[in-house]
Amino acid sequence: MERAKALILSGGKGTRLRPFTYTFTKQLIPVANRPILYFVIDDILQAGIEDIGIIIAPETGEEVRKVLSEYTFENKRVSFNFILQEKPLGLAHAVKTAQDFLKDSPFVMFLGDNLIENGISSYVDRFFTENLDALIFLKEVDDPTRFGVAVLDDEGNVKKLIEKPKNPPSNLALVGVYIFSNKIHDAIKIIKPSWRNELEITDAIDMMVSKKNSVKAQILEGWWLDTGKKDEILEANRVVLDERIKREILGDVVDSKIIGRVQVASSAKIERSEIRGPAVIGEGAVVVDSFIGPYTSIGDRCYISKSEIEHSVILEESRIFAVARIDASLIGRRAQIIKKQGLVKAYKFFIGDDAQVEVY
Asked: If one looks up domain 245-359 in CATH, what number appears?
């Protein structure tokens, strides 16, 4: 089998996740207290691919470098090739930008904010066993007008790709995962920018189809999570906590009740509180006189006092004091939410880094 490479896209502007993405890239938003990008890299390494290129943007590239400098796999440090894409001019443009790294190798292209169930190992094997030029990943969706969609023939060959059609010919949406041979580079050289002034990967794949290259589809049976919006991140957090978290109480627990699959980091402290899993409490976090409900991730060095939180993601160093109930919220780094007076049944927040909220 040829030695494959991987190209992970971790650039873009993340407009659907503002205000979060004013200050850092969406691929670094944590679910279950790990950056989404880590799960993508895990899947690639588990498929036996070790030569990994990371597309970064000028605005957020340094933070991606910093976070990935701390990444380990099976207790081993992993090194990456960082590739700067000056402007987000399309997925095919990202491949073009990375050509010096990719050379003539087959490669997996993985959007860094996508998660799929069961990884990619079996699909990489299929690509080589069937001697394909492209394998595109698809998932049945309820509203295909929001996605690029594929039309297949009876044998699973790709006939045509259509970007966000008003009248969809199928409900098979393009997932942000692809496997290509080096023939994708020839296709990209031919295509022109779209109406968005971007080089579209769908156009490049269509060009491969027209040139009779072997382009097939893999329809995913398990879950697919595109974490481009707040509710999608909360759903990813729920799924990962549900499927991958085991009970592990390492920190100090004083006069508290820990129920179910809960991870409490070694330097965390829980006092006079109840934690009901699945949930994770990060390093250096302090939870006092509070209730942390299911599907909640409390980041490193957070301070939670006299509050109730469920189904939420709280990023590092945030402080929440005397808030009756927070539900379905995504709260940025170093945010402060302080309840001054009165009683409200529940709050929902979507606030970015360094925000301060006072509720009266």
From this structure: 2.160.10.10
